[in-house]
């Protein structure tokens, strides 16, 4: 049974004030570890758009469903591979 996992983008770089492009692979690995395989993933939290895009790309093929959660617009479905 797939789990719903929330990944707060800002938590990926919490040891520094700002995300560093030089640490992109580290952030991606943290997100992939949290996501596991075949789960419904929600990306949320403050972070640069480049980091959101790289993580979303990395999750494609690993996540069953990807959702962007915003306090302004709510949930936005990015992809859903749970339906054939």
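^ Assign residues to that structure.
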């Amino acid at each position: 049974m797939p789990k719903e996992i929330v990944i707060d983008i800002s938590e990926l770089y919490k040891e520094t004030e700002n995300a560093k492009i030089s640490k992109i692979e580290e952030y991606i690995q943290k997100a992939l570890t949290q996501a596991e395989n075949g789960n419904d993933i929600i990306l949320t939290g403050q972070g640069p758009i480049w980091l959101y895009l790289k993580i979303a790309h990395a999750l494609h093929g690993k996540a069953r469903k990807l959702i962007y959660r915003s306090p302004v617009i709510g949930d936005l479905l990015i992809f859903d591979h749970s339906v054939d």
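The chain has a mean pLDDT of 96.
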